[in-house]
Specification:
6-stranded parallel beta sheet; Rossmann fold; alpha/beta
Length: about 425
Amino acid sequence: MEPTALLRALFDAAVAAAGGARVLPFLPPPPRGRTLVVAAGKAGAAMAQAVAQHWPSEAALSGFAVVPYGHGVGPIPRIATIEAAHPVPDQAGMDAGVQILAEARLLGADDLLLCLMSGGASSLLTVPGASLSLEDKRAINRGLLRSGADIRTMNAVRKHLSAIKGGRLAAAASPARLVTLAISDIPGDDIAVIGSGPTCPDPSTSAEALAALARYQIATPPAVIAHLTNPASETPKSGDPIFARADAALVATPADALAAAAALARSMGVVPIILGDAIEGEAAAIGAQMAAQALDYARSSADRPCVLLSGGETTVTLSAQPNPQARGGRNGEFLLALAIALGGDPRIYALACDTDGIDGSEQNAGAVITPTSLARLAAQGLRPEALLSAHASYTAFAALGDLIVTGPTRTNVNDFRAILIV
């Protein structure tokens, strides 16, 4: 198979391994009372659809699937689909969160709250904490997204500014039974971080959230500071009685996606080498590091062809001032840095994509590089180092015609990277 086609097949296998139907083996039996489904995130509609199709028709079922715009799957029996903004929340997400909290408070001891979480839920379930406005939340979210902070730090802040995240949905639903099923987009697979853990005990604190805002020099409205210094902003912790009837499970993880890609590679006679499923750091720096690893394998490995597979979530730190040249996401930035460091090595091809189908600010999942990428950029008068410095990876790969465009995949297990050595 042609190298870039092989890389795309590996990516498709990784995405397929994290589909919404993965929820089915983990479903609990229906309760004596009714079941309220709260599905949120990029896989929310797909997970809710799988539940609705397999839930007994005679059992009482209702709920909400809150997804980014364009991520619906059409009508879902007994479950309403609400589309809202991601990654910066909007009024639609806030209205959904308010409605969900109201419905959760009606649940009794014979009822079940079935919470289906996936990446993106943090911005989609947005109910500001007491005395905070939606614009306060939006301002902090924009700052976090530009800061280069890792997802655990960002979600610790989001939890403490929310009336629904960080275990507060569980508090609203108590004393109902609570089951949380999640597709992980978090390095390390901490279920309390996925979607900012609306149904999970929260180990982070308000003081840590306030310190993070200061550490990353995020402009913080006075109302946010006042909120975080108020003891009422603290989230429910492990041991709280609201979690006495709570269970949680991961139904798909980044490791599952890499394992599926590795199995396909083996079937094609390519040796898979998994570098890790939780790699973090600045995207350009990770690109340079993996270029060095790939060159080492190309020089020394007897196992060729081989493919270096990895997952996780890299970051791109942007300046506080908007840069009109900045177009693209962390996967494009990783690839551009990788290509520069490889220097056109004729043995190495690579793909990097976000498994949700959206890499940063544009509508591509990611891109591919080939041994000719640098030469083709130069032929168009484009300087890759200048594009990398400007965070303009989209511009580079659009010029080459090497963008990967999938549309919404309706799942998310974070970044997928594959470096093929032939």
